[in-house]
Amino acid sequence: MLNKTKSGAIALIIAASMTPLAAHADAAKDIVIAGRALTFLENGPTGKVVMGVVFDPSKPASVAEKNAVMAAIGGGLAAGGVTLTGKAIEAGDASGAAGVGALFVTTGANGGAVVSAAKAKKIITIGSDVSCATSGACVMSVSGDPKVEIVVSRSAAAAAGAVFKAAFRMMIREV
């Protein structure tokens, strides 16, 4: 009986530890969509773009998403007219983020410090959680599963000085 209980507990721990990773299994799709979306900015970036990946180290799901995004970017990920490289940034250190062309905000890491830092530096913020854009914390949210969906916050875009090309605006949902 004790062995069955131990086996069950071990299986439960393994399953629970894998859940955050499964939730971000499509990080590669999301980051490619984010990179291509950057190319639709008026006077947007081209060539090599450093994508800051903002995460909250106290939230396992945020850390798991950061790990998945960084793995998807690897040593460089071509997406449209840009090649993304990643730089992990703790949410509390977002105000010191230097040399980044955009910030990918992981789920749960879109606190006031991140939003303030991005607005002050006029940095585009992108998240995979639609609530990041609908709340105005991110300029846009991207998702590639089950279909491509891009949501843009008008207020966050205006605060960051982001203007999107007309062709892009036909493909997105603005809030």
TrEMBL record:
<keyword id="KW-0732">Signal</keyword>
<feature type="signal peptide">
    <location>
        <begin position="1"/>
        <end position="22"/>
    </location>
</feature>
<protein>
    <submittedName>
        <fullName>Uncharacterized protein</fullName>
    </submittedName>
</protein>
